[in-house]
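Wed. Picked up where I left off yesterday with Glycine/D-amino acid oxidase-like deaminating enzyme. The coffee machine is broken again, so keeping this brief.
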Amino acid sequence: MIQHTPLEPSLWFATAAAAPETAPLDGTIDAPVCVIGAGYTGLSTALHLGERGVEAVVLEAEQIGHGGSGRNAGHCTPTFHVHEIPAIRRMLGEPFASRLIERQTNAANLAFDIIRRHGIDCEAVQTGYIQAAHASGAMAKLERRCRQYAEIGKATRLLDRDEAQRLTGSPRFCGGWFHPEGGHLNPLGYARGLARAAMAQGAQVFTRSRVTGIKAQGGRWRVETPSGAVVADKVVCGTGAYTTGFWPGLEQSFTRLGVAVLATQPLSDNLRKTIAPENNTVVDSRRDTSIYKYDKDGRLVTSVFVEGRRGGDAAYTKALMRGKLQWLLPQLTEVDFQYYWSGALDMQPRTIPRLFELAPGMVASLGYSGRGVPTGTMMGAVLADWATGTPPGDLALPVERLQRAPIYMNFMPRVMLAWSRLRDQRLARRDGLDPPPF
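Structure written out below (tokens, as returned):
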């Protein structure tokens, strides 16, 4: 399965700063809070708790950043992935809508602030995010987005055709939207740095310590692993798409969507002067999006949702994505994908973070549906609020009962990808533009 593939083939595994030294849990220990999962959510929770004087214990089934936190493409984008801000307000109502909007739209700033304060070595650059219009008809949505973010105090701006093409290096775009607070990083390096920072604040992190069961013990919780246990007052689950069956129904609250990630050879200085010359993150306006950014060595990193052979067959996917990149960037005459790896994200109908109460004193946060770098970091602060006694009505998100994802979520994300691809192709053809290869 996608979620159990090794990290070793990834660019991030080859280039990330070393992880702090950890070991499996051996024996029974006591803690005020036990955190399950050493990805962004779990490690940010432990870090924020440590900064408040609460020493957490983190249990990780594999290694730090083994799941989506170490496998994603490294974008840090402080927006909502699917819904516009007015839709979030309708969906959540007040006061939770305004609280989540404030947290999510400042989540990239939070992540980069943590990186600076704790000296995390992870190639972090906050150079801005570009959403590029693939057709003139897409500009209306970007104009609305620009107005909505201006209303909450964000200094974003629209790009005309010439500026969008200059900043992206692609002649395929009709304009765009620029958000200066976006950026990118080495995601595995960030996860490892979060772990090191949390440990410096008193957290204990145990790897190769898969949770095998959780049971009540004297008004507290006993979280068991193959060689030990943590007895804690509160338990936080932050395992995302890599959740296993340690709690009934949790794995059924989302569906997994596979993602394949690819990295090219380092580009020449001359090419880098014409392709994303200001080192921005570039994402186009298609639902089945085209996306690229640089790593520290000048490699272009791109990704694609898994759909049949696309993402399932490495040679086929490399050929497809080579054609797609060269369609976007005609000056890129050579594309040698030197790294190829896969991962998964956890999709649920709302596509925004969810905070589920599993039992008194136990919560889970998952279903981010993308935007994992800033959202997981931000949710760590929310979970630390919960763990330190913030009343449910004062949290940034409502505390919900655990809900099973609807059956249609098993196929709807892929159906929507196919449908939106056809829609986006029609929109481009209306402008007399050829669609990209798929």
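Quick read: DSSP finds 14 helices and 19 strands in the chain.
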